[in-house]
Amino acid sequence: MILLSICPVCGYSDLFEPPYSDNSGSCPSFEVCSCCGFEFGYDDHNKNYSFSEYRDNWITNGFPFYYQDDKPKDWNKQIMELQLRNVTKVFYVPRLPAP
Length: 99
Ligand SMILES: [Zn+2]
Prior knowledge:
Elements: H1 51-60, H2 77-84
The structure holds zinc ion.
The site of zinc ion has 8 residues, from loops.
């Protein structure tokens, strides 16, 4: 099983490490995605967001690039949509929230 350092929310491919230690959401990295701002292990486990819910909100809010220092100069809707295609390369599920 190859774990890619791709954000399952927005498709950002420059995460420092894979967001979880396996496909089922174990051992989240607690990294905050530079692009969409999703924190693996927090926004899912504590805030109860699914990836698609968070993604929909993010897009509705104008897909702001979270960490300005990593923001591409030409960040726009077209680039965002291209990047979103990366989501299909990963098969993570969010960490389930506490019952
Ligand atoms: Zn992201």
